[in-house]
Design a protein that fits this description.
The complex is a heterodimer of chains A (about 150) and B (about 500).
Chain A lengths: L11 H21 L3 H30 L11 H21 L1 H15 L5 H22 L13
Chain B lengths: L2 H10 L2 H19 L5 H8 L8 H18 L1 H7 L8 H12 L3 H33 L5 H17 L5 H15 L2 E2 L6 E2 L13 H19 L16 H8 L3 H16 L5 H15 L11 H13 L5 H7 L5 H12 L6 H6 L1 H21 L2 H9 L5 H20 L2 H19 L5 H23 L11 H32 L1
Antiparallel strand pairs in B: 1-2
The chains are: A mainly alpha (about 150), B mainly alpha (about 500).
Amino acid sequence: MSQNTPNRFLRPETLTAIGLIVVAAGFLIPTAALRPLSALLPAAMLIALIVLGAMLLISDQREAAKGEPAAAMTKAPKRVLAAFALIALYALGVDFIGFYPATAISVPLVAFAFGYRHPLGLALSTLIVLSAIWLIFSFAMYQEFPTGRLWSL
Amino acid sequence: MYLDLLHALPHVLSLTNFLAVTIGVVAGIVVGALPGLSATMAISVLVPFTFGLEPLVALGLMAGIYNGAMYGGAIPAVLLRIPGTPAAVATTFDGYPMAQKGEGGFALQVAVVSSSIGGIASAFALMLLAPPLSKLTLLFGPAEVFWIAVFAMCSIIFMLGGNVVKGLISACFGVFVSVVGSDPIFGNDRYTFGYLELLDGINIVILLVGLYALPPVLDLLESPLKTDTANENLGTEPIWRTLPRMMRFWKTWLRGSLIGIWIGILPGAGGSMAAFMSYNEARRASKTPESWGHGEPEGVAAAEVANNADTASALIPALTLGIPGTSVAAVMLGGLLIHGLQPGPMLFRENPDIVFGFMWQFLFGAILLLFLGGSLATNSFAKLLKLPRPLLGSVIIVLMVIGVYSIHGRMFDVYLMLGFGAVGYVMDKLKFPLPPVVLGLILGAFAEENLRLSLRIGRGDWGILFANHTSQVLVALTIAVVFGPSLKRRYWDNRKSGAQG
């Protein structure tokens, strides 16, 4: 995902176009089993996505042939991947160990991992966030949060 | 026609509604002041929390956020030369040089007064133009409604500028997402793959939070920690004392308001375009154009009045036809839908108190901005720039999860949101426009239902779609929107090459 990918087939737009064509073609399989009127709009959209994906692929490959650099995706791919992984882990944590424990771990962990290393600030902000959520959602709005699948085993 | 507008006023004047607008404006200023966060993102995160609220309270919050964020973007634009929102780019041109000269406080006061004036003008435009337009749309049957949906999608794709192929891909993706779930007529499952959670379709809020809230959070975490340091000395002269110095901007305010309203109505254009156009026009009309770019307060006034004047006006086509003028308006359409309010003529007939109340809330939001964004408050909001970004990112992640989980109380939606977030991030980075996705989701199911209804009425004859004059006009407008920009470009290219030859 760097700006000057040596392989022209690893350009972000090319990869996106290929992914789009493959996924849209894959969705056409269940579409074939639908009644004609029910399949009308989704089939039209999937075929359009395949055609448009092909157009995107061709235009990006033309640009690659001209030696034009690929569209930049991120400045720091590792940080983006780490951020996304931490968010996904947090969601899994909420699901498996419960909302409050997962949040108590996630808020300081994400902030710490991405550069905010002030211990008192981390502790205070976690406490404030958790108290505010409990007060607004659990106490005032009776909102129930996941208690964790692990504990119910 | 305007009687309903007056009838709605008492409904808005309740304490809760007023409080909602006030909280919205403050929250909007806070969000706008934080670079990387936008009104679109704030409203996307907020929408799920409004489920349990009265529709007017929820809409008041949204109206307040929209108004507040448009001004809030000026705070880092003036103090740091970092536009808090894309619409505040033009504010940096003269706002930052003013701050360097020690006039940061005055620049922000000009910004808040101009923003408020722009917002008030925009709210009046919404009040005056939306009701008659909604009457016109009462003439529409299923075929016309289908063409309206097609016209809306085409206009947002082709008038947005940029890559048309990417715009079309975005729209097709949105429409495809709208068909997931039970078929509205036959009742058979479509693309649910055995997941009962998908039977009712994909809730628009899940898509909104994924597309609009997750990418900015990843952006916040992508850059290494940097503490923004603004000049502490803003100058805290009361706003009433500086008002006489601003009165000379009246022509700029008037011109900028008209530009902002017009740009807001146009689908696909947005606050940044309005601000740039207003800035350029004001500079052209100025007697001292050489002072612009070096700390001319009128430059700040021109940019800020226009970027706030496009707020309520973007809702004119959104409320009457379901065509949002900006991405915030597209997200607001989602907010209306979750409260069971389908944009279009029936909205004005069935829920006049809500729709007209919403217009009043826009007006109150714009007026409140003047009081809440005053010098003392601005000094406090400026301190927000010191908030550590990683901490902010982690709190937004928690809010996103709470919001999406609370829709149906299930983790499936959270995982779905993360999936849309990943797609949204790639789309955002590769410059695929996001508003067509939202519009596709909103209008896709709507278009399909009306197309199939038309075909049933016409007993399978596709000619029914072109049978009456309104349909034909809408088809012609759609063709004009699709081919107009390229024909116009070709015409200007030919003229230019002719002049050179």
